[in-house]
Write a structure and sequence with these properties.
This protein is of the alpha+beta class and 580 residues long. The protein is built from eight helices and 27 strands. The strands form five sheets. A 16-stranded antiparallel β-sheet has the order 10-11-12-13-14-15-16-17-18-19-20-23-24-25-26-27, with no helix packed on it. Strands 1-3-2 form a three-stranded mixed β-sheet, with helices on one face. A hairpin with a 4-residue loop joins strand 5 (171-180) and strand 6. 25% of the residues are buried.
């Protein structure tokens, strides 16, 4: 017999030995027939759908599958308000098994009974108005479809309306939903016990080792006798958590306190390791590549003084610094003292600066006042010009108001910053001068997720000339987050072949950012600005371009391809576009 005939016979025998069930299983499918509105719910939770069984379902297997489907589908549809569905099974066209779901009539709310007990029901003060407001805000009114998720959420919102303020021990004493499948109606009943009014009592702090309780009291804990507020506790907890002293903070009250009129405020702390060393790398289109080392000690000199120090080396800037931040005063003032040594080489101007200063910051809501006293020595070396030095003891005031929906990803609101500073020859300075500066940013929501960003800044240094005035109190501009399309601080006064600061500044900018779905967007912008030493010679320089945006955890990263009209040059510039 020919060899190929033997091979063919062997293949035929093997094919004949394959189980019949395996052939049928290739076509055996479980198909769900259901209205489109309910399909996503069922397909998400029914794990037997669209699976081919290992063997074809016989009559018993289909009965078992239909029994399981009726139980699981009925339970899921009940959460959406369908309590009398019809669920049948039948042979599918071309094989398989079809499960046909007819949800029936959806149940709607016919009646709602809200009953309150406890202190809230006393006819004193604003209680009646608050009680009426809670009833009006009930989230599942008559006529709405009944859904289990909505029922649970409505009860939770009702409870939140009480126990987030004054009634810390409020609870749902009883609740039930009576469903009538025949009429498709639901009667809801909720009984809420407000409990007594809570007021804050004394602090009870655990977890302190390196620090004492006096440090905690500097962060404005609730005052004994103050009405309980969850928002007040969270604000206190956040203030502690944002310090360098603690790794974790939990603040709450004793909701089972026998003295609700003076419920203890419990503060559970885990102290952070006081000393930390860090290394960082980065890059900026303004100052180039960067490497930085830092050292922090939150228990400096065995006190709650936070030392922040470091050395930063960039292509066009190098500096070393050390600042000591004190805990806030009982009045909320934030004080610090610091020293700085810096060298820069930007736009042909080399600057060496050493300074020492003290700062007091007074935060109040979204407004921050900052007062500083600083002494600095500065040496300037412009390319192709004379070297000079200057000394100044300056007093400075800065006022900032941030009213935006998000600091890291602003879309609506505004930021205003005003500065006033100066020095006098009679007080360790080489020249009398005063500096005024202002900056305004406006964020306007546009179509869908887009945003329009408008910016304006201006400044003037009042002095007989710029000679003897430190560069920090003069103006240069250009670069990312300034006039894009120009090199960093390249717009100013020409001295030799360098650019130095002038006494006048004006900058405007308009930008439109279109955000796609997700975290990516694209922006187009136009900037105009200049810094000069003579108002008669002042001329605005234009820059415009476009670039992508990415919403990073630190804020939107902006990468811009910008054209500077004066220089006839295109530059790639990037920055973090936060509300600063």
């Amino acid at each position: 017999m020919p060899r190929h005939s033997c091979v063919l016979r062997l293949l035929l025998v093997l094919f004949a030995l394959l189980p019949v069930g395996g052939a049928l299983a290739a076509e055996e499918r479980i198909v769900l027939v259901v209205p489109d509105a309910l399909r996503p719910l069922l397909e998400k939770h029914l794990d037997f759908l669209d699976r081919r069984p290992e063997q074809a379902l016989d009559a018993g297997g289909r009965i078992a599958l239909l029994r399981r489907a009726r139980k699981e589908i009925a339970e899921m549809l009940a959460t959406e308000g369908y309590f009398s569905p019809a669920i049948e099974g039948e042979e599918g066209d071309g094989g398989g098994f079809r499960i046909i779901v007819t949800p029936g009539r959806r149940t709607t709310i016919a009646r709602v009974d809200l009953h309150f007990v406890g202190d809230l029901t006393r006819a004193e003060g604003p209680r009646a108005a608050r009680l009426a407001a809670l009833k009006d805000a009930w989230g599942l009114p008559v006529g709405e479809p009944f859904r289990q998720a909505d029922w649970d959420a409505a009860k939770q919102r009702l409870l939140d309306g009480l126990n987030t303020r004054e009634y810390a021990a409020a609870m749902i004493a009883d609740s039930h939903a009576v469903i009538d499948p025949e009429s498709g109606s639901a009667t809801l009943a909720v009984e809420v016990d407000s409990g007594p009014v809570f007021r804050f009592g004394p602090l009870e702090v655990t977890g302190l080792s390196d620090y004492d309780q006096a440090l905690i009291e500097r962060y404005r804990p609730p005052t004994p006798g103050e009405p309980y507020s969850q928002e007040r506790l969270l604000r206190f907890q956040t203030a502690l958590q944002n310090t360098a002293y603690f790794a974790s903070v939990v603040v709450d009250i004793d909701r089972n306190s026998p003295t609700p009129e003076a419920a203890p405020v419990r503060v559970q702390l885990t102290e952070a390791k006081p000393r930390r060393f860090g290394v960082g790398f980065g890059m900026s289109s303004n100052t180039g590549y960067r490497v930085e080392t830092s050292y922090r000690d939150a228990h400096f000199l065995n006190n709650a003084h936070n030392l922040v120090s470091g050395i930063r080396i960039e292509q066009r800037r190098q500096l070393g610094y050390a600042d000591v931040f004190l805990p806030p005063s009982l009045s909320g003032y934030l004080d610090s003292v610091g020293v700085l040594a810096e060298h820069t080489n930007i736009s042909g101007l080399q600057t060496q600066r050493q300074s020492v200063g003290v700062v007091r910051t007074i935060p109040s809501g979204n407004i921050e006042n900052r007062f500083a006293l600083n002494y600095q020595h500065e040496v300037l070396s412009p390319d192709d010009s004379l070297k000079s030095s200057r000394n100044a003891l300056t007093a400075n005031w800065s006022w900032t108001r941030r009213a935006v929906d998000s600091i890291l990803n602003p879309r609506d609101g505004q930021v205003i910053n005003l500065q006033l500073g100066g020095a006098a020859q009679a007080l360790l300075s080489d020249r009398n001068f005063a500096r005024l500066y202002g900056r305004y940013q406006l964020f306007l929501p546009a179509i869908d997720r887009d945003v329009i960003i408008l910016r304006a800044e201006g400044g003037v240094t009042v002095a007989s000339s710029r000679d003897g005035v430190p560069q920090d109190f003069l103006f240069r501009t250009g670069g990312a987050q300034s006039v894009r399309g120009y090199a960093y601080q390249s717009l100013g006064v020409t001295d030799g072949s360098a650019t130095v600061g002038g006494r006048y500044l004006a900058v405007t900018s308009a930008e439109y950012v279109h955000w796609y779905k997700g975290d990516w967007g694209v922006a187009a912008f136009i900037d105009a600005g200049n810094a000069n030493d003579e108002r008669k010679l002042f001329k605005m320089n234009m820059g415009y371009g476009f670039g992508p945006r990415w919403k990073s955890p630190a804020g939107p990263i902006a990468v811009d391809l910008a054209y500077g009209q004066r220089d006839h040059r295109v530059r790639l510039q990037f920055a973090v576009a936060i509300a600063f």
